[in-house]
Structure formats: structure tokens, C-alpha cells
Protein: Bile acid:sodium symporter
Amino acid sequence: MLKLLAFDRFTILLILMVILASIIPVSGHAASIFEMVTNVAIAILFFLHGAKLSREAIVEGVMHWRLHVLVFAFTFVLFPILGLMAKPFLLPILGQELYWGFLFMCFLPSTVQSSIAFTSVAKGNVAAAVCSASFSNLIGMFITPVLVSFFIFGQSKHNYDPTTSIIQITLLLLVPFILGQVLRSWIFPYMKKVPGLVKAFDQGTILMVVYGAFSSAVVAGLWHQVNLLTLFYLVLACSILLTIIMLLGLFVPVWLGFNRADQITIFFCGSKKTLASGVPMAQILFSGQPLGMIVLPIMIFHQIQLMVCGVIANYWSKKHEPVVSKDKTALE
Structure:
């Protein structure tokens, strides 16, 4: 339990990137070059994500449409509704930019790797998790910009065009992903030989984006705008949001009659938000805005969800008696 609750190495590196950006932020011409290098790394990252995804898993998982509809509802309906409902409470204590970041987090798709990993550990429907999480990321490239346009920039004075953002996201994320799928039979065998290198590149790309985002935020005076009390409120808000989502994710699938394996899949896929896709999207959608404050909520939520889901997945993997069910026989 203590090991699961401890910060993992990637989380420590994320914190170090924030500290490094606070001490030695990249700025000026160097920042422009760093951004171009980061965009290339992001494109390669999503190319590798496309090459990872098994077509057999897609075919097997896509048939389970009821499960995918429910995960979609959690990700792109329930999360945004809760984020919007929280506005009267969060806007006064967090400020506009941090609340934008909180709401943007609610608009993001689910994670891919961690959703699949936790579903597998807890003995859920892995094929459905692969398909649902991947579909969430693909459809999120189009839905997230529209939600941001309508609910964030639609109520501000910014002249924001979601079409341009969707095109940019498509070129940066979706096209490399599809190309990776097309070339999977050639690329994936090599990826299997160097899984450590692939994982390092995956995490390294996110670290680059976080460093760049926080560098620009520090230059713009981030730490003069966010104090410890505000950070506490943000952590508390993320924790409450995750608790509500997880409670609904625990009981709603049971009420709808899903079997145990599907309940586990819905719980893990429907309760997460992606950092890997979220930070690159934020770069495009919030160009010219205080990006560090925009991505801070998803960074905090990301760590909380990993720690909580790690404990729950480990607990379910070792249990043989159900935790909750209509007829007391469903979910372990």
C-alpha cells in the first residue's frame, strides 16, 4: 500500500521540471526552437502510440458499443457538467486561468496506457479498455476544441476559431497516429525489442512539454499569482471531482447491468483524464495564454488518479468477493 501511494519516478521528474522551469526558464529565441523540437517529439510520440494499438483489439473491443457509450458519457458529458457546476465555487478562489485549466481538464479524453494497465491488473475487459481509451483519445481531438471554444472562449473576448485548432491537432496528433497504425506491422516488432526506450521517449516528451509550458508561465509571473493556499484549494477540488466520478463509476455500471469485467473497464476508463494528450492540446488551444496555469490542474489530477487507481486496482486484483452489485454478485 505504501509503495502504491508513493510518488513514482515520473511524478518526481514532473516536479523537477517545474522546479527547473522556475529556476532556469527557457525564453526568447531559445523558447521558439525548444517548442519546434517539442512538436516534433509529440508527433513521433503519437506515431508510436498508433503503432502500439492492436487492430485485433480494436475489432474485438469496438463491438461492445454500450460500454463505449457509457465511458464516452462519463468522459465528455459528466466531467464537463461537474466542471461547469463547480464554477461558482472555484472561480473566486482559483482565479480565471486556473479555473480555465480545471475546466479544460474536464473536457479532455481519457488516458490510454494507465486505463488499460489498471483494467488488466484488476482483471477487467482489457480488449474493451484498449478500444474505449483509444477511441476517447481520437474523438477527443475534435470534441475537446469544440468544448473549449463554446464554454471557455465563447464566454470571453478572445477571437477563438475551433476549426483552426482541430486542424492543428489533427496534423500534430491524429495524422501521426494513423500513420503509426498503417506501418504497425513494420514498426511494432522493433518497439517490442526496446520497450524501455519507447517508455522513456513517451515520458520524456511529456516532460519537455511541461518544462516549456512552465517556463513561459514563470516568465509571465506564474508564482506571483499562485500561492500555497490556492494550490491547496486546487488539489482539494481535483480530489473531490475524482471522488464523485469514481463513486458514480462504481455504481452506475452495476445499475445498468454490466458484468464484473465490464464494470471494471468502465470504472477505470471513465474516471481518468489524459496528461499525454492534454498538454499538447493545451499548447495549441491556449496559445498566447498562461499555459503553466492551464496545465497545472491536469498535472495534479493526473497524479491523484494514478495513486488512487493503483490502490483500487491492486485491491480488486486480490479480492474474490464482490464489493457492490444489484444482486450482491457483481463487482469485486
